[in-house]
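Progress against Task 2.4 (sequence-to-structure conversion) is shown through the following example record, which the project officer requested during the mid-term review.
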Amino acid sequence: MTRRRTILYKLSLNSIKHVIERNYMSFKKLFKISVFPNLLDPILYLVAMGIGLAGFVGNVESMSYFMFVTSGLVAATGMNAATNEATTNAFIQMRVEKTYYAISMTPVNLQDIVIGQAVWAGVRSTIFGSLFLIIAAFLGAVQSWLVIAIPLVLFLNGLLFGLLGLIFTIIVPNRDYLNYYVMLIIQPLYMFSDTFFPISSMPKWLRPYSWFSPLYHAVNVCRSLMIGSITNVGWNILWMLLVITLLGIIPVRLVHKKLVY
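Structure tokens generated for the chain above:
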């Protein structure tokens, strides 16, 4: 029995790998087209806030405002890339192109497809977040060799938002509802997760709620690593791993109950 379960588990991992490979092949064809829109938004914010506004703002939490914003945008770029994959791209594959249905006709089951999609969202987060990190390095926003660990943080951040986005994508009745997810969840997280201003500047009663923001923890880790500090890095990563574990169960259970071809 143990041997059989082990084999089934390996087969499941193999199926997930095939889903990731399929997404990668599709991504390669559109990579040049997708780079610009994924990096334009954080670059515009960097110019407007990190460069334009920095001249009117002093140091924030013992670092320049430019450094503060840039480090926050690294994590936010990964979040946006993962969200786009887990919402718009996943919805098209589920409901429009019927890709999920086609793949499920093979030995790959729906659970493998969903987890594979979430992992791929983590990969996209790593790719685009790392590209923005390179831009940040050229602009002098990197102060420590600890940044080599940031791609791993970006992957965890993307996996978390990939799972979160897939949960919503699976249950929405049509594509228009995805706008509510972005406007009501992603955008507020983007603005109020220590990205553009410190949580300490918010009202005291509101500060504890930031602890529940996934992006807040990713921003803290990226910022610490970019300035060469490991303070609270472990706790933030542990929080992300715990939430990933809890979220991972939900889309796997929802996909059979809610997804109708």
